[in-house]
Amino acid sequence: QADIALYAAKEAGRNQLFFFDPLLQAETIERALLVRDLRQALEQDELVLFYQPIVDAQQHIRAVEALLRWFHPKHGMVLPGKFIPLAERNGLIVPIGKWVLETACAQLAEWQQDPEREALVIAVNISARQLSKTNFVDTVKSVLAQTGARADRLMLEITESIFQDNVNSTITKMDALRQEGVRFSLDDFGTGYSSLTYLKRLPIDHLKIDKSFVDDIFEDSSDIAIVHTIIALAKNLEIDIIAEGVETCEQMEWLQGNGCKFFQGYLFSHPLHPDKLNAILENTTLLPTKELRSSCD
Ligand code: C2E
Ligand code: MG
Ligand code: MG
Ligand code: MG
């Protein structure tokens, strides 16, 4: 018990010893236990990379986003919202993120053997903490070399949180990877540190409108204005837009009518286990949702 409390205290970020505090929040202990388990999750093969399709207006799968799932021996499936922030805080995101890159690139290399699938792109989420590592560029390059994946099929998703770091060194790294063919998208756009001035400087190819705006396009007139502004801005900068969290035909139609080219959301598909995705791709790169098309007509 005291062990756990000590552990919890460390994880809580207090770099000092302290005596067992019976009032220590149960939540803090639970989080500490989760971190303890997460340290072993990689070795014990408990992490699985799911993939969520990103489709074009014809509902052809053009890319997939890699989304991490942790199958915990006791708690079952744990979503990234529960463990990624912990991993970011204690640095575990670096080895975990490397595993994600390796796994995604191995999948790309496999698809490249098949002319039907070789054009598919995988988008991989990159935490600011990973990008801030001085060897980030080399890590990505060596994973590409080792797996044999084509750099131009890899898309890295970064968020506005990178603006808290040295933007110039971030841009230098992005440029180095873009030289290799790697593409970048800016994730969750509109939710974070406002970055309209940086947006112009950032070498990005795609911009993902956050789900919170997509949710509100029929509810909130200021969100409609924001979405219009984002789309206009992206057009000017010649950046393609991906809409996140599309759940209804109405949203899809509105977004498409207003210049959005790519879509991701439960309307098309949930994130899928790789076996399930590959079974779908086996037959076609079109999602098997005929009902969807007719219901959206
Ligand atoms: P994100 O990158 O913005 O990913 C999109 C999230 O929205 C995913 O949640 C996805 O399952 C969810 N989503 C997609 N379509 C819909 C929809 O129509 N409705 C709703 N309600 N949700 C939808 P998920 O998988 O729980 O991941 C959450 C976040 O965790 C991600 O947000 C990303 O920031 C982070 N994450 C996931 N995998 C990784 C990873 O491998 N590395 C890093 N650094 N972060 C990751
Ligand atoms: Mg993402
Ligand atoms: Mg996102
Ligand atoms: Mg999001």
From TrEMBL:
Domain of life where this protein originates: Bacteria
Domain EAL: 31-285
Name of protein: cyclic-guanylate-specific phosphodiesterase
Lineage: Bacteria, Pseudomonadati, Pseudomonadota, Gammaproteobacteria, Aeromonadales
